[in-house]
Amino acid sequence: MSDQPGQRRPLPGSWSVRQGRDAYLAENGFSTQAYDARWTAASIAGVRFRVPNTARHRSAIMLHDLHHVATGYGTDLVGEVEVSAWECRGGLRALGAYTGAIVGGLALLGLLRAPRRTLRAWRASRRASLFRLSGHAYDELLALRIAALRRLLAVPEAGLAREPRRLHAHAPRASARAAE
């Protein structure tokens, strides 16, 4: 996978989900330790803030990260609204009101910011998000190949993203490029 911003594509299906998740976390400056933090960092349009990391939020973030791995959507604003729209169609009931409002709000923001890409992501969902599927322990999901996770989620073998995977403004590689 290239470090060039225009060349980041969905992760290879031959990788394990754990390998994909770890690569996703590293390129974005995230860590598994953040899953257990009391508060978690968030940002919208470059504005950073912290949100309470409730039990449902923690679980949702862990699964949300796997959705990024499966779909290939980035972590910039448009990538986040794409994955949120995809998740909305898959169902948010298991997330509860607080976390569901975050995901739903991002999807609605996408209708203003990038309506075509948001609607494309909504239509691409086969209502099979990990929020909706039960019976799969997180560690079992990590042991799968990305190709198997994509099959489970009815995502095409090459992922869903049509555009290169872009990073959020505070990602280590994005920050390094901005400083150049």
Q: State the share of residues found in helices, binned by percent.
A: 40-55%
What is the count of DSSP helices, taking H or I runs of 4+ residues? 8
In quaternary terms, these chains amount to: single chain
Which residues sit in consecutive blocks of at least 5 with pLDDT less than 50?
1-6, 175-180
Chain-averaged pLDDT? 88
The major sheet is characterized as: 2 strands, antiparallel
Shape: globular
Order of helices and strands: HEEHHHHHHH
Number of structural domains: 1
Strand order of the largest sheet: 1-2
Percentage of residues in strands = 5-15%
Class from secondary-structure proportions: mainly alpha
Instruction: Tell me the Rg in angstroms.
Output: 15 Å
End-to-end gap: 21 Å
**Strand runs, count:** 2
List the helices and strands and how they pair.
Blueprint: H1 17-28, E1 39-44, E2 47-52, H2 55-71, H3 77-90, H4 96-113, H5 115-124, H6 138-143, H7 146-152, H8 172-179
Helix pairs in contact: 1-2, 3-4, 3-5, 4-5
Description:
It contains 8 helices and 2 strands. It has helices spanning 17-28, 55-71, 77-90, 96-113, 115-124, 138-143, 146-152, 172-179, and strands at residues 39-44, 47-52. The protein has 180 residues and is mostly helical. A hairpin with a 2-residue loop joins strand 1 and strand 2. The protein has a two-stranded antiparallel ribbon with strand order 1-2.
Question: Key terms for this structure?
Answer:
single chain; 180 residues; mainly alpha; two-stranded antiparallel ribbon; 7% strand; disordered N terminus
